[in-house]
Design a protein that fits this description.
mainly beta; four-stranded antiparallel sheet; 0% helix; 53% strand
Length: 122
């Protein structure tokens, strides 16, 4: 079992930045690829990005490429989502997830956090 707890969400003005953290506990963190997803009100959950177990590679959805960066610190059992140049379209609840392999599909992840709200004002 892996427990994931997100933090760092909040209210930010358009053009601003936020860094989300996802702290993991339970099984060996480095055994898992990590993903970030988001869900806006009235919309389906959307893949944001994913990072490999050792942090050597990350993949992003086109809408966040060049603005968002995923990193991880396996010594701290934490994965991060650095978000810059935020727009109101980035407003959503952001979730981290752990799975055996990096994937853009939520169904490939076994463990999920409770989410953290990010609100971007115009």
């Amino acid at each position: 079992q892996v427990k994931l707890v997100e933090s760092g969400g909040g209210l930010v003005q358009a053009g601003g930045s936020l860094r989300l953290s996802c702290a993991a506990s339970g099984r060996t963190f480095s055994d898992y690829a990590m993903g970030w997803f988001r869900q806006a009100p009235g919309k389906e959950r959307e893949f944001v990005g994913t990072i490999t177990r050792n942090g050597g590679s990350a993949v992003y959805v086109d809408s966040v490429k060049g603005r968002f960066t995923i990193s991880r610190d396996n010594a701290k059992n934490t994965v991060y989502l650095q978000m810059t140049s935020l727009t109101p379209d980035d407003t959503a609840v952001y979730y981290c997830a752990a799975g055996a392999f990096p994937s853009g599909s939520g169904s490939r992840y076994d463990y999920w956090g409770q989410g953290t709200q990010v609100t971007v004002s115009s």
